[in-house]
Amino acid sequence: MHVNGFTYGPLTPLLAYFMSFLGSAIGLQSASRARAAVGVSRVRWLTMGSLALGGTAIWVMHFIAMLGFTVPGAELRYDPVPTIASQDTTT
User: Fold this and answer.
1) Which of its termini does the chain have fewer beta carbons within 10 Å around, N or C?
2) DSSP reduced 3-state for 4
3) CB under 8 Å to 20, separation ≥6 — which residues?
């Protein structure tokens, strides 16, 4: 069995890298602004930063990269609920 990690060429790895970079930049910018903020504003900046890092920089990047992964002759399916919840369904 041959595993092809780059079905669409460099498109999905580059797009995944870009999303990771963008999420990291937004997360760092939000954390920087949180340092200067106080009270509820600080909590909002920290929340936005954590969502940017966890949501865009890690989660979205990972699943964009997964879209480019194929195994010829095998059907790959992603169950939406566990995928969104990032749960392991192999047990």
Assistant:
1) C
2) strand
3) 56, 57, 58, 61
Q: What is the pLDDT of residues 13-64, one digit of tens each?
A: 888 889 899 999 999 999 999 999 999 999 999 999 999 988 778 888 888 8
70 phi/psi in degrees, rounded to 5: -140, 155
Measured between alpha carbons, how far is 57 from 35 in angstroms, rounded to an integer? Answer: 21
Q: Distance between CA 45 and CA 38 in Å, rounded?
A: 10
Residues 80 and 86 sit within 8 Å (Cβ to Cβ) = no
SS3 70: strand
Bridge partner residues of 70 (DSSP): 4
| The residue count for the chain | 91
By C-alpha distance, which of 19, 81, 87 is closest to 53? 19
